[in-house]
Amino acid sequence: MSAAQDELFTLKGVWKTYNGPLVLRDVDLTLRSGRVHALVGHNGSGKSTLIRIMAGAERAEPAGSAYLDGTPVDVNDSHSHHHRRLHFIHQGLNVIPHLSALENVALGTGYPTKLGIIRWRSHRERVREILHRIGADFDLDRPVSTLLPNQLVVVAIARAMAHWTDNRSVLVLDEATAALPAPEVEQLFTTVRRAADGGAAVLFVSHRLDEVTRFADDITVLRDGQVVMNAERHELTKATLLDALLGTQQHHTTAPVNRTRADKSGSTALRVRNLTTERIRGANLTIEAGEILGVAGLDGSGREQFADAVYGAIPRAAGEILLGGSAVPAQPRGSIKAGMGLVPADRPRAGVIPEMSVRVNETLPRLKHYRRATKLVDEPRERRDVSAYLESVHMTPRSSEKKIKLLSGGNQQKVVISRWLSHGVDVLLLDEPVQGIDVGAKEVIFDLVRNAARNGTAMVVCSAVDEDLAALCDRVVVFDRGAIVAELRAPDITVARIAAASHAFKSGTHDRRS
């Protein structure tokens, strides 16, 4: 079969703007039957937008074109017949935990019936046949909540294949391996390879470059919305792949960290011993007073659980947190009492009470401070203090009585952060502190972090944005597959070094310093 005949799905000249900003610029992508194709790019490169365009969830600009088996198709028409041959498996998987694998596979396709009665035997045989085709086997009647993570992805693949009217279909795995440990990734790609061998074209999106170099036949690299590399795996080295991913100029960009540390820097503020959760495996860290520590890593690496686990907001399987040498109970009340605060990643649901005023949200951790002898809150004093706090973060004092939901995301985040800093915490955990806020508010928040550190507060900043960590932190630790695999110190913190460790080549990039 010729290369042209192998071309199963092709995008040509895809552009996408969002009310002005350009997200994708003249992107070409060709997926070939029988091949596994990796789509790689740093955060914000345009990968997710391209996948949404393929799925019909976003509209591309009219200039682009798409072809399925050489026939032009309208990629913007999500009801077109060609979408029956495109199947998407996202990181969330969209499985129903309490239903069995048999029932989950039927979602979207329905059951075979006769005279209105489900033909369970026929359905079971069909699902068994699909699993056999992709080399998988497990109990179809167990609730999927009891299956291994890689088996959950297999259920999602089986559900996609149950839709197939043609083996020459496209299977897209969008970060479906992010939360899987290495042995389960290996098993999953055995399954994926079987699907490709049957005639499918497989596209998988991954930040893990060791997965890309081991499992992909073809690789496309996006950077700043443009394709900067299209290559077959054998044409690449790790160095050329990283250069394409990050841009060679990034390799020599050092962090602009140059500030005076607090007088009491060098004393231990927080010690993390053997912290273990669902995604974190035995993390050990010591954080100094006045230090800004960055926590990096891809989604599913353990980074996104670190702040909540230290604070006690999610269960710990093992481990101990010590603040000032004393053990902190594994629950938020104990953390607050010990002198620790948390700025959560999900601000609307976990960081603020939307229907309450800015004043109430600001003083939540220290209401006892405003109680009179009658146990009523001294509102005049509360208002005066909150007005002063708001001025310190460049907000108008009169906004204290507004419902906090009426503020911009950046101003809400200023309230959440100043609530802890005005309380005088010794350690502040910030999870994605500038996510979804404008540039001006971001700089104010960075200044709050720096000033708090100068005053001796240990600041722990967890973020998926490597550029922010490089610009802000004295030290950065990198998580991969639940473990701390690298540690970088200023002035040697660069976006490229963080990304190289995060993208987890299994040899040559991990730099764990004791």
Give a quick set of tags describing it.
514 residues; alpha/beta; Rossmann fold; 2 domains; 6-stranded mixed beta sheet; 24% strand; globular; Sugar ABC transporter ATP-binding protein; ATP-binding; ABC_transporter-like_ATP-bd; cell membrane; P-loop_NTPase
Largest sheet properties:
6 strands, mixed
Low-confidence stretches: 249-255, 506-514
Assembly state: single chain
Per CATH, the class of the largest domain reads: Alpha Beta
Percent range of helical residues: 25-40%
**CATH homolog superfamily of the largest domain:** P-loop containing nucleotide triphosphate hydrolases
Strand content: 15-25%
CATH architecture of the largest domain: 3-Layer(aba) Sandwich
Strand order of the largest sheet: 6-9-10-3-11-12
Structural class by SSE content: alpha/beta
CATH fold-level label of the largest domain: Rossmann fold
The total tally of domains equals 2
The first-to-last residue Cα distance is 54 Å
Count of DSSP-assigned helices: 17
Give the overall shape.
globular
Alpha carbon gyration radius: 25 Å
Integer average pLDDT:
82
List how many beta strands DSSP finds.
22
Keywords: ATP-binding, Cell membrane, Membrane, Nucleotide-binding, Repeat, Sugar transport, Translocase, Transport
Protein name: Sugar ABC transporter ATP-binding protein
Pfam families: ABC_tran
InterPro entries: AAA+_ATPase, ABC_carbohydrate_import_ATPase, ABC_transporter-like_ATP-bd, ABC_transporter-like_CS, P-loop_NTPase
Topology diagram in text:
Blueprint: H1 3-6, E1 7-17, E2 22-32, E3 36-41, H2 47-55, E4 65-68, E5 71-73, E6 86-90, H3 101-106, E7 113-114, E8 117-118, H4 120-133, H5 149-162, E9 170-174, H6 182-197, E10 201-205, H7 209-215, E11 218-223, E12 226-232, H8 238-246, E13 268-276, E14 283-288, E15 292-297, H9 303-311, E16 318-323, E17 326-327, H10 332-338, E18 340-343, H11 347-351, H12 358-363, H13 379-392, H14 409-421, E19 427-431, H15 439-454, E20 458-462, H16 466-472, E21 475-480, E22 483-489, H17 495-502
Parallel strand pairs: 3-10, 3-11, 6-9, 9-10, 15-20, 15-21, 18-19, 19-20
Antiparallel strand pairs: 1-2, 1-4, 4-5, 7-8, 11-12, 13-14, 13-16, 16-17, 21-22
Helix pairs in contact: 4-5, 5-6, 14-15
Organism: Streptomyces hokutonensis
InterPro entries: AAA+_ATPase, ABC_carbohydrate_import_ATPase, ABC_transporter-like_ATP-bd, ABC_transporter-like_CS, P-loop_NTPase
GO molecular function: ATP binding
